[in-house]
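Hey L., structure's done. Input below.
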Amino acid sequence: MTAAYPFLGLPDRLAEGRTPRAVIFGAGHGSNYPDQDSSGYALAADAIRAASQSEASLVEHWDFDLGGPLFDGGPVCCTDAGDVPTIMHDNAGNRARIEAKTREVLALPAVPILIGGDDSVPIPFLSAFAGHGPIWILQIDAHIDWRDERFGERYGYSNPMRRASEMPHVAGMVQVGIRSVGSARRTEIEAARSFGSHLVTAREVHAQGVDAALRHIPDGAQVVITLDCDGLDPGIMPGVAARTPGGLTYTQVIDLIAGVGKRARIAGFDLVELYPPADIDGLSALTAARLVVNAIGAVVRQA
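Output:
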């Protein structure tokens, strides 16, 4: 499905014979819980695209987050493929379509960048890396998402890291930004630790810097970054369903993204849980758009 406003005005394809380094696509819904209206998440991808339009004419300008123009002096090498069609409560169908689109991008080969969408869409996104692993996961989130099931659903918003831990191609994970009571019960903490997940609280990052998380990622590893918008402090990312004080700053998050690109290799990136109905003056969408820009820039600069 073609987007009305492509991210940063990017093309939907490059000239014949050129393969993109990264491909952006949106997805609104993964596996929704019964009787819950999560339609607001379907607005997220286009809100991010719309927020990016103010920079569309500035792509060749110097970007101080990246230390140079977005494409590092080279030609445009990222495309916007539009949206995967998803339907609220068509859980199995949504998962199949998201996984198929991700596999299509990986086969190019290119780095898939998924913008959305509820926090269940990372499950099929991560599942698509089977055959492209092993991968590590860097999750940026206020919550650990290790619930085994909720309301009878095992592939919903609370389950992504639990399901990822069951994927044979996932070698390890670092979960950063965790704070407050989250949604974790003692059994879920024990399951995460038993798997070997490295839990890094927001407080640790504030005290020690982003190396508190990056040091756990093996040099040269392939890493998929999954970024839940509530991992950031609600003062700069208010447009989320679960606002939790004490989150990561914009600078900490872009340093995490850049740090993965320098220490290892970004194999995929998703940004989820933007909830436009709760946004304030478009601030969250603008911040999300800048985070995606930084992800593209990090991918362009890695070997």
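The beta strands are 22-27, 78-83, 111-116, 135-140, 170-178, 198-201, 222-228, 265-272. The chain has one domain: 7-301.

-- N.
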